[in-house]
Amino acid sequence: MNIATFNANSIRSRLATILAWLDTRRPDVLCVQETKAQDADFPSAPLRAAGYHAVFRGMKAYNGVAILSRHEPDEAWAGFDDGGPADAFRLLGARFGGLNIVNTYVPQGREITHEMFAYKLEWFARLRRLFDARWTTREDVLWCGDLNVARTADDVHDAEQYLEHVCFHPAARAAFENAIAWGFTDVFRSFHTGPGHYSFFDYRTPNAVARRIGWRLDYLLASPPLAARCRACEIDVAPRRQPGASDHTFVVADFA
To answer: How many domains, the chain?
Structure first.
């Protein structure tokens, strides 16, 4: 099974990119974040014509998540159910037989002193509690998406410069690690070590891809039995080089 994740930064603006990528790569599942489309405006028809079913939760101009799949999921759900904000526009799950996929667009956090940074830390804690409540580490669970944290110094082009950034601050990394400690493996790092592997390149940085000025913010995290069946994982940088690209690019993994 081939599974990918992609922050589209507007699914309608990036629809041609997505359709071309789907046609070339033919993944079984593509998880999309930051769709920026309310449900009535989601481009289901062209995706269906391309052979993909879509489940989605969106809002106008901000956030939004979708799971595109070659086969309709057996079950889909959105948002937290713990009594706090549901955040259904940031959290979407689907089950395909015994495989459970959780697609997340984690809050960025804005500034360290902003209330949204504290919300981001609690968001990771809520996600860990959700994993604890719903599944065991013996099941096939894949957590993916734009997680808005560079996990280590190797995952950002200048760790010293960004130590106080909301996507690299020690508190953000600790919150992320606590969620990963449920039992997840960062499958990309099972195949690639060292710096220079990035999935996000800021629009504001000229020639960021060529200069390798980026962040690894997009992840595929697998439970133990699923991680054991991972055969490959890569960041496909080519779409980021195209005109009108998203600032993120696709991350894709193969599972036996």
So the answer is: 1
Burial of 56 (0-12, 13-18, 19+ CB in 10 A): buried
pTM > 0.90: yes
pLDDT at res. 139? 98
For the chain, the distance separating the N- and C-terminal CA atoms, rounded to the nearest angstrom, is 6
**CATH number, position 64:** 3.60.10.10
pLDDT tens, 71-124? Answer: 999 999 999 999 999 999 999 999 999 999 999 999 999 999 999 999 999 999
Q: Which two tokens stand for residue 234?
A: 């890569």
User: How far is it, in rounded angstroms, from Cα 216 to Cα 196?
Assistant: 9
> Which pLDDT score is estimated for 127?
98
Query: What gap in Å lies between CA 48 and CA 87, rounded to an integer?
Result: 26
Both tokens of 219, joined, read 């992840």
How many other C-beta atoms can be found within 10 angstroms of the C-beta atom of residue 75?
10
- Domain residues for the domain of 144 are 2-255
